[in-house]
């Protein structure tokens, strides 16, 4: 009796014999890190190296354009979705990268008034008119 077995090469079941987080090109984010990961000052040399080597695969997994092939990649996707806490260096690194890519928060000094760029011109016009009025007042007093 012969047993017939079938295998599917495009299965979404993780295959642990595959290498995790493989990419054919290096990962760069010139929009958020124009000097590169190594020179921006936010990542260690090891983190920058890992991000450049595996960032393309991590980005594709996070976006859902690549299906997980290994249990490590499946866990990475669950961490990105918030189902599990980050424990591996790549999981922690991707969370750090995405947090920094969103931008740093701006903290103002207490008591300062922040002026929006759209309001800046009107604000400067008011200041200019106030300064011009102060310059004219002493001249008027001199004539009197």
Describe what is shown at a glance.
The protein is mainly alpha-helical and 144 residues long. It is built from 4 helices and no strands.
List keywords for this structure.
144 residues; disordered N terminus
Q: Work out the helicity level.
A: 40-55%
Largest sheet: none
Q: Taking all residues together, what is the mean pLDDT?
A: 75
Tell me the fraction of residues in β-strands, as a range: under 5%
Radius of gyration: 28 Å
Tally of DSSP β-strands:
0
Pfam families: DUF413 (PF04219)
Family: Belongs to the MaoP family.
Protein name: Macrodomain Ori protein
Task: Describe it.
InterPro entries: DUF413. This is Macrodomain Ori protein. Belongs to the MaoP family. The protein is mainly alpha-helical and 144 residues long. The protein has a domain at 13-108. The protein is 48% helix and 0% strand. It is built from four helices and no strands. It is elongated. Residues 1-17 have low confidence and may be disordered.
């Amino acid at each position: 009796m012969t047993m017939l077995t079938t295998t599917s090469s495009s299965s979404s079941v993780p295959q642990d014999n595959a290498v995790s987080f493989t990419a054919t090109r290096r990962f760069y984010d010139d929009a958020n890190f124009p000097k590169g990961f190594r020179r921006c000052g936010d990542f260690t040399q090891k983190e920058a190296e890992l991000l450049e080597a595996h960032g393309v695969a991590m980005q594709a997994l996070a976006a859902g354009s690549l299906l997980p092939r290994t249990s490590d990649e499946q866990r990475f996707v669950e961490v990105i979705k918030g189902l599990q806490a980050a424990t591996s260096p790549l999981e922690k690194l991707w969370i750090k990268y995405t947090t920094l890519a969103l931008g740093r928060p701006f903290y103002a000094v207490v008591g300062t008034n922040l002026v929006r760029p759209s309001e800046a011109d009107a604000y400067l016009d008011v200041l200019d008119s106030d300064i011009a009025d102060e310059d004219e007042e002493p001249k008027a007093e001199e004539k009197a």
